[in-house]
Design brief:
Blueprint (H helix, E strand, L loop, with lengths): L1 E6 L3 H11 L5 E8 L2 H15 L4 E4 L5 H11 L3 E4 L6 H11 L2 E4 L14 H4 L2 H7 L2 E4 L7 H12 L3 E11 L13 H9 L2 E5 L2 E5 L5 E6 L4 E8 L3 H8 L5 E7 L2 H12 L8 E3 L2 E3 L1 H8 L13 E12 L2 E12 H8 L3 H18 L7 E4 L5 H10 L4 E7 L1
Parallel strand pairs: 1-2, 1-4, 2-3, 4-5, 5-6, 6-17, 7-12
Antiparallel strand pairs: 7-15, 8-9, 8-12, 10-11, 11-12, 13-14, 15-16, 16-18
Helix pairs in contact: 1-2, 1-13, 3-4, 7-14, 13-14
């Protein structure tokens, strides 16, 4: 049994709190902390209503390492689950180092003034965490996260060598708004408007934002959708840890309506992340836009449809070429019925809870900083089926 501190009270924090509360035999006490404690209390009330479990709440500025240290020293958790903003990863890691507590997040650190998706800042903490005798588990969401574990499972059980990887993410849901993002608007728009990048024959190839696309026929009634090539941080760790990869790409679907609105917002400067002067006050346009857009946590009651996220893999098994596809389908309405959140938050929050479970139960152990694919995938894959994210495999032999 373990005490868990969850930092972040958005849609994902809500899911993590609910899913941890469903397992009191593993997570004995939960504290949820955020800059706005009223959000934490609302989640705590919903958790109590749905599960009967009580969770503690606290006000916390996750930019301030000293505040985090004080809260950790007060609550004494075994693990900190960081589902706050990616800008805050390092301040939270610093607090975990100071207090000797294990760390977990769902997305890599990003500098606030530049859209860069790299693990270098967090990988640089490896020796510090190792010397402290604690563990940091990076990217325990779905992508990154489950997609990394899918690859590790495929390499362990379905391939001798993996040569090509396409991670394909489809949100076929509809929330009815003219324009809204399914997770933090600031992070979502920074991600989508950044240059694309993929791995090919030992080198990174850069593309203009959303310049390359393909049609992919998604399973279980979703059907063909247009997918756009992007860069996602799990490519960096997978290329490092899955030896022999010759090509690795990441694809995501966007509706024509989403792309139309995004183009207009870019053209008028609303996606800029550099400060502009307005009536003598410096504001960042993207942060202002975030305030105007619907809060992603409010989309749960109105979103219908499904997500499909999976890995299409090519490689060799027993000397023969093989193609393999493993994926999860998540229903927005089913997710909302269970935890009061739409499927995008659900597919990130459930793996965060499972990653926490792996650490506190001793299934995954280590000292230092690690990515998901570095551990035995089997216990994690088993829990996906039990905790609401069942997966399916399809194998073709060439």
């Amino acid at each position: 049994m373990a005490r868990i501190l969850i930092i972040g009270a958005g849609g994902v924090g809500n899911v993590v709190a609910h899913k941890c509360a469903q397992l009191p035999e593993i997570f004995s006490q939960i504290m949820l902390a955020s800059r706005t404690e009223t959000k934490c209390r609302q989640i705590a009330d919903n958790v109590r209503f749905r599960t009967g479990s009580n969770i503690l709440t606290a006000q916390l500025d996750a930019d301030q390492t000293l505040e985090i240290v004080r809260l950790i020293e007060f609550f004494k958790p075994e693990l900190v689950i960081n589902v706050a903003l990616p800008y805050q990863d390092l301040s939270i890691m610093d607090a975990c180092l100071e207090t000797g507590v294990n760390y977990l997040d769902t997305a890599n650190y990003e500098p606030p003034d530049e859209a860069r998706f790299e693990y270098k800042w967090q990988w640089a903490y490896h020796e510090k965490f190792e010397k402290k005798g604690i563990m940091a588990l990076l990217g325990s969401g779905f992508d990154p996260g489950v997609t990394n574990v899918f690859c590790a499972y495929a390499l362990k059980h379905r391939f001798d060598e993996i040569h090509e990887l396409d991670i394909i993410d489809c949100n076929a849901g509809d929330h009815g708004h003219p324009f809204a993002t399914n997770f933090n608007p600031e992070i979502n728009i920074r991600e989508v408007t950044a240059k694309g990048k993929y791995w090919k024959d030992g080198n990174w190839v850069e593309t203009d934002p959303l310049a390359e696309s393909m049609i992919f026929d998604f399973p279980e009634g979703i059907g063909p959708k247009k997918c756009y090539l992007m860069y996602h941080e799990e490519l960096e760790s997978l290329v490092k840890h899955i030896k022999g990869l010759k090509k690795a790409r990441f694809w995501m679907t966007f509706s024509d309506n989403y792309l139309k609105h995004l183009e207009v917002l870019q053209n008028v400067g609303m996606t800029r992340i550099d400060p502009v002067n307005y009536n003598g006050v410096e504001i960042i346009p993207l942060k202002f836009l975030k305030v105007l857009l619907p809060d992603p946590s409010s989309l749960g009651p109105v979103t219908k449809g499904k997500t499909c996220i999976g890995c299409l893999i090519k490689g060799v098994k027993d000397g023969a070429l093989r193609q393999y596809y493993t994926y999860n389908i998540c229903d927005h309405e089913a997710a909302f019925k269970e935890v009061g959140a739409q499927a995008i938050s659900y597919t990130t929050g459930v793996p965060a809870m499972i990653g926490a479970m792996m650490i506190v139960t001793g299934k995954w152990t280590g000292k230092g900083v690690f990515n998901m694919e570095q551990f035995d995938p089997d216990p994690f894959m088993e829990q996906l089926n039990k905790r609401g994210l069942p997966w399916t495999e399809i194998i073709w032999k060439d």
